[in-house]
Amino acid sequence: MVINLDYMSEHIKKVYSFYSWIYDAFFGKIFEHGRYSAFRMMNVKPGETILEVGVGTGLSLPLYPKDTRVVGIDISREMLDKAEMKKHYYHLSNVNLYTMDASSMSFEYGAFDKVIASHVITVVPDPLRTLKEIKRVCKRDGEIFILNYTGCNNKFISRCEEFISPFRDKVGLGKHIDLDELLREVHLSILSEQRVNLWGMCRLIKCKNTLIPA
Ligand SMILES: C[S@@+](CC[C@H](N)C(=O)[O-])C[C@H]1O[C@@H](n2cnc3c(N)ncnc32)[C@H](O)[C@@H]1O
């Protein structure tokens, strides 16, 4: 099957241009627990450089201490506009935001101490390429955090989710992926993991960027 990535990226941009108006009201509270848990797991230290891949409306930006440098990228200009508003509202002079495709970033090798992709890996058109890029821009021995709804443990529900996956993908809410398989492919091993959000429906994963390149 030939997947037209350009078409899919354009589609994601359109979908999130619409979601940008309702995202915080809808997902702000639902994913709050995961957001705070991810921030705690990141254990951010003064002077560190952090990359938020698919930063969206920037819900987590106010959490980072001002003595860190935070870069957020997103493919959707409209989502980033909301993040820009938060940057100004909270006076986040340590935050820089760029419109950029996560599967082809313009940062140098090893530019960041820590990289986080929160509810992004299932949404991007090419998760494998995106993970390889995340590895590339993260320092050797840096840390990579992935937070995502990755399916239910219940076999029946899991089958149903696989069934509706193409629909979820079409409306930009993520597709069914085998995250463990993807991590193996890019040689990322899990250092720690926890279940977060309502009913533990999301996986929060911490990996160390040991082997470069992917
Ligand atoms: C579900 S939202 C998550 C936003 C934010 N990380 C959060 O946790 O609230 C997914 C985000 O990924 C962005 N996105 C999708 N594909 C992308 C790509 N190829 N490159 C960069 N961002 C992308 C979308 O525009 C959207 O803002």
What keyword list fits this structure?
single chain, 214 residues, alpha/beta, Rossmann fold, seven-stranded mixed beta sheet, 7 strands, globular, binds S-adenosylmethionine
Strand content: 15-25%
Number of domains: 1
Q: How much helix, percentage-wise, in residues?
A: 25-40%
Total DSSP helices: 7
Largest sheet: 7 strands, mixed
User: pLDDT average, as an integer?
Assistant: 91
User: What is the fold named in CATH at topology level?
Assistant: Rossmann fold
> CATH homologous superfamily - what is it?
Vaccinia Virus protein VP39
State the total count of DSSP E strands: 7
CA-based shape: globular
Radius of gyration: 16 Å
Report, as a whole number of angstroms, the end-to-end distance.
24 Å
**Hetero groups bound?**
S-adenosylmethionine
